[in-house]
Amino acid sequence: MTARAGLAAAIMAARPRVVAALAAQLRDLDAAEDAFAESAAACIALPEPPRDVPAWLFVAAKRRALDAIRRRQAEARMVDALAQESDMADILTLPEPIPDERLRLLFICCHPALAAEVRAPLALKVICGLPVPAIARLFVVSEPTMFQRITRAKAKVREAGIAFELPPRRDWPERLGAVLLALELAFTAAYADAGGELSAALEEDLGAEVERLALLVAELLPQEPEALGLAALVLLARSRAGARLDAAGAMVSLSQQDTAKWDYTRIAQARAMMDEAARAGRSGPYQVMAAIQLTHARRAFDGVTDWAAVLALYDVLLTLRPSPMVALSRALALAQVEGAGAGLTALEALPAERLVRARPFHAARADLLAKVGRVGEAQAALDAALALGPPRAERLWLEARRASLS
């Protein structure tokens, strides 16, 4: 990694804490983001990187924000209060300690005064720094629509005078759910991006960013078992990143991956988080999803997959969070336990109209249809999946399966 690339990575890693600290002091999400962006650009332009990148960014951004407030000749009282905290001799050699306000900012983004459909997108924008086009794709809306939603949400925070304080503990579950949902959606997009096409378009590793943020939430809320469960889920998925593509760039299915290429450190870290979550005695869907992935990870140690355990976990998940996609995954596990016929029967009982635009549905049908000898229908199912425009890695995998049926 070049020195400039290392500095850019350090700036990206510092973003959540710096923006959170700025937002808490400025009481303005837009001002915090703008000030950070300006200080990041200035940091990149320095002849030599600062000794303490996060502290430099914080001080530089804070000074820029104060200058902007003074120029507008507004909020004089806030300027005076903040100026008293900014008596510094040298921004490069005497960095100001950064207060850790990340937890507070997470809850502000998910305040119940904000519309439910914008809480998770706002968290992704402000905390994660994902660009609006990427967030729009995650929520399947147009870019202008998502931009307007986020803009209105920021204005609501400012105009409604939403307190930049942690809410009472009894109010945490509602807001935490929005944060975890934001991470789950980003994780879903990152995991589907096996070939890295979305990350390339974003000019950042989306999977790495989701992992960093999931670990941040777990670090800040270690007493919340579902936060630990989601972090474990992301770690387990990321542990397989090195085995998800073959030499030609085609996606490799989980059952065919070379376990020697898995990241055992991430697996161990996820297991420790799940053990910690279990001690709380409050199970939830993220913990169950992580348990399913951990069962798959055990193949690296046992050489086999305990499909009966996977099926039982999907039964639990289907109770906690019923959805066609969960039922789809359960049907595939059932096929492993009771045979392809049983799995196909369960799959064909699902509401096809809700899954017709889901590539995993068509791919799963093709697999089970081929196993029961209905090759022509399997080919048609693969054609349906290919018609939905999969990314390159998935397309190559589907095409290889289609060719094998011919």
Description:
Helix content is 70%, strand content 0%. The chain has 406 residues and is mostly helical. It folds into three domains: 3-100, no CATH class; 101-221, no CATH class; 334-406, Alpha Horseshoe (Serine Threonine Protein Phosphatase 5, Tetratricopeptide repeat). Helix 12 (225-238) packs antiparallel against helix 13. The protein is elongated and about 75 Å long. Mean pLDDT is 86; it is low at 85-95.
How much strand content do the residues show?
A: under 5%
How many helices? The count is 22
Ranges with pLDDT <50 over ≥5 residues? 85-95
Mean pLDDT: 86
Order of helix and strand elements from N to C terminus: HHHHHHHHHHHHHHHHHHHHHH
Summary keywords:
406 residues; mainly alpha; Serine Threonine Protein Phosphatase 5, Tetratricopeptide repeat; 3 domains; 22 helices; 70% helix
Secondary-structure map with pairings?
Blueprint: H1 3-26, H2 29-45, H3 53-72, H4 76-84, H5 102-109, H6 116-128, H7 132-138, H8 143-159, H9 172-192, H10 197-202, H11 206-220, H12 225-238, H13 264-279, H14 285-297, H15 299-302, H16 307-320, H17 324-338, H18 340-348, H19 352-355, H20 359-371, H21 375-387, H22 392-405
Helix pairs in contact: 1-2, 1-3, 1-5, 2-3, 5-6, 6-8, 6-9, 7-8, 9-11, 9-12, 11-12, 12-13, 12-14, 13-14, 14-16, 16-17, 17-18, 17-20, 18-20, 20-21, 21-22
